[in-house]
Amino acid sequence: MLFYMDTNKFNYQNTEIKTQMGGKLVRKVSIKNGKGYKSVTKYRKGKNMGTIKKHIHEDHIQLIKSGKFIPGLFNDCNCKSRKTKKNLKNLKNLKN
Q1: Average pLDDT for 7-32
Q2: Domain extent at residue 13
Q3: Is residue 39 part of a domain?
Q4: Exposure of 42 by Cβ count < 10 A (0-12 exposed, 13-18 middle, 19+ buried)?
Q5: Number of H helices and number of E strands within the chain?
Q6: DSSP helix, strand, coil percent of the chain (3-state; round to 5)
Q7: CA distance 70 to 64
Q8: Which of 12, 53, 76, 83 has a CB 3.0–4.6 Å from the CB of 39, allowing a cystine?
Q9: Does position 3 have pLDDT exceeding 50, yes or no?
Q10: What is the C-alpha separation between 9 and 69, in angstroms, rounded?
């Protein structure tokens, strides 16, 4: 028996919130009508430090639809920390 999965009508949404010392990391997966994206948002002391949003590969969408775990799904979504004036001043002092 052949089973055909229509990915055009598949909708899925999941949010994972991980609290760390002084900050929060929010990972989201959203799939609507077979097209999806993943995003990682980093908060520090209540302020948004950065957000990365990328598309999900079709193979990963099929695995999510079948209920499989995808190790390393968010490995390519790394938020870079913002450079504050204090940090830039310290970098200039170190170079001199």
Answers
A1: 88
A2: 7-95
A3: yes
A4: buried
A5: 2, 4
A6: 25, 40, 40
A7: 8
A8: 53
A9: no
A10: 21
Q: Is residue 78 part of a domain?
A: yes
Integer-rounded Cα radius of gyration of the chain: 18
* Assigned domain for 77 exists: yes
Sequence length of the chain is: 96
Contact status, residue 15 vs residue 28, Cβ threshold 8 Å: yes
Q: What is the mean pLDDT of residues 12-33?
A: 91
The amino acid at 6 = D
- As to burial, measured by CB atoms within 10 angstroms (0-12 exposed, 13-18 middle, 19+ buried), residue 78 is exposed
Identify the H or E element spanning 77: none
What mean pLDDT do residues 6-28 have? 86
3-class SS string, 46-83: CEEEEEEEEECCHHHHHHHHCCCCCCCCCCCCCCCCCC
Per-residue pLDDT reduced to its tens digit, 42-91: 998 889 988 999 999 999 999 999 989 888 888 888 766 555 566 666 66
User: Does a structural domain hold residue 2?
Assistant: no
